[in-house]
Amino acid sequence: MVACNCGCDDELTKQLDKIIDPYRGNPGGLIQVLTKAQNLVGYLPKWVQIQIAEGLGVSLQEVFGVITFYAFFSLIPRGRHKISVCAGTACYVKGTKMVLKTLRELLDIKPGQTTPDSRFTLEQVRCIGACGLAPAMIIDGKDVHGRLEPEIIPGVLEQYA
After folding, report:
1. Is 4 part of any known ligand binding site?
2. CA 11, CA 8: separation in Å to the nearest integer?
3. Which pLDDT value is given to residue 160?
4. SS3 at position 87
5. Among 11, 15, 87, 139, which is most exposed with the fewest C-beta within 10 angstroms?
6. Residue range(s) defining the domain that contains residue 107
7. Domain ends where: 44, 69, 94?
């Protein structure tokens, strides 16, 4: 491995190589490698994409295409806590716009962005399966918060300080 000026970390590149090794030269392992790489690094910056493309023997365009096709993958750093605001029909009717407006004001970010302190990433999703709790959001993929009102949202966020 040659040192580079791409912003990568030597230890991370070694760990990424260990992820790639079982799939080396096997383009069919792309999604598995991308998933493990994102779990390692937190997102998929260009240097990771290049290393994966070279390791699997696929084009950088193919790697980028898969990353941008699947919503699970991220090209930007994510916060320690991911807030997913439901925009399904029940939540939308009962106040998704108000929830998003309140979160945008409190966090000073828009959906798809991460706070400067890397504490939160905000996203709007189609449904979280909590229609009876509308409007609702889920934090870190497991903590559902429902029947949201603007005045209780700051207290919810404080639980993740």
Report:
1. no
2. 9
3. 94
4. coil
5. 11
6. 81-158
7. 69
